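for the recovery benchmark. tokens below, seq after
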């Protein structure tokens, strides 16, 4: 992966966010049918709750800084290990041993139509040809009734081939139109977390409504392992995203894009604070 020069742009509009502060906020995330991780005050709990039997499976002291040097939130308790992502004030959990072969079925989020990119990087990794396909960002997240919302720990991002592509862009169509997108820039790989900062991350994008060939706005994306939600003044069906500015990588400056969610939930659910209060009321955890 090669170095490139940053592209300057003028910011005419900014993103709307409901991001969590993992180092300060109380929150919880459910996974499986009966389990959750609860982060409350100075303690992290692994809870089992099937309505008939509620118990703390394990707990540890909350570290002063949950976000590691690579920008990830790693949770390691005696009974569970996982990685968390902020998704517009909600929390999603990694799925261990995710497999891209599963992505053709049971998609829990809107699947776009007619995905088109200006280019797709193809490179050899350990003598294997790898294509960073433009469809990958739309299948990074998945939702199953039994598990909840999770993300794949071995997913690949879309990466344009900037050696040949001076104007990287991504186009797609939303069936019913969308007034917002949740975007996760960077190379997200929980098994090799240095890839996030080693590679370039997208800093600024321009969004166009291609049905009327009109620029909707310019948006900044934050530089951490979590989603940025960008809001539009009206619904758009035929969307074009142009990459205009990047945060430079420590080693490479190929801009990576791991996830796009069409029509994301707008506004936080307070990350399960109601459930934390319920656990306190039932004396499962201490206030």
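predicted aa per position
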């Amino acid at each position: 992966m090669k170095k490139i020069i940053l592209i300057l742009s003028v910011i005419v509009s900014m993103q709307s966010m409901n991001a969590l502060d993992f180092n300060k906020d109380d929150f919880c995330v459910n996974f499986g049918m009966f389990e959750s991780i609860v982060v409350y005050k100075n303690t992290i709990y692994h809870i089992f709750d099937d309505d008939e039997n509620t118990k703390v499976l394990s707990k540890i002291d909350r570290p002063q800084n949950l976000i590691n040097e690579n920008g990830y939130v790693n949770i390691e308790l005696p009974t569970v290990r996982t990685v968390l992502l902020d998704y517009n004030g909600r929390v999603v959990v990694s799925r261990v041993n995710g497999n891209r072969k599963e992505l053709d079925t049971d998609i829990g989020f809107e699947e776009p139509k007619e995905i088109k990119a200006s280019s797709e990087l193809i490179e050899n990794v350990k003598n294997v040809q790898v294509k960073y396909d433009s469809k990958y960002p739309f299948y990074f997240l998945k939702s199953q009734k039994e598990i909840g919302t999770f993300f794949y720990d071995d997913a690949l991002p879309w990466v344009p081939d900037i050696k040949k592509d001076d104007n990287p862009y991504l186009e797609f169509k939303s069936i019913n139109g969308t007034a917002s997108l949740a975007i996760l820039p960077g190379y997200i790989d929980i098994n090799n977390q240095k890839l996030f900062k080693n590679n370039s991350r997208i800093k600024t994008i321009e969004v166009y409504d291609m049905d009327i060939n009109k620029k909707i706005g310019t948006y900044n994306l934050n530089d951490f392992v979590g989603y940025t939600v960008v809001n539009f003044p009206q619904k758009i069906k035929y969307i074009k995203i142009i990459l205009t500015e990047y945060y430079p990588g420590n080693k490479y400056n190929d801009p990576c894009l791991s996830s796009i969610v069409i029509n994301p939930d707008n506004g936080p659910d307070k990350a399960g604070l109601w459930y934390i209060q319920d656990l306190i009321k039932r004396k499962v955890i201490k206030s």
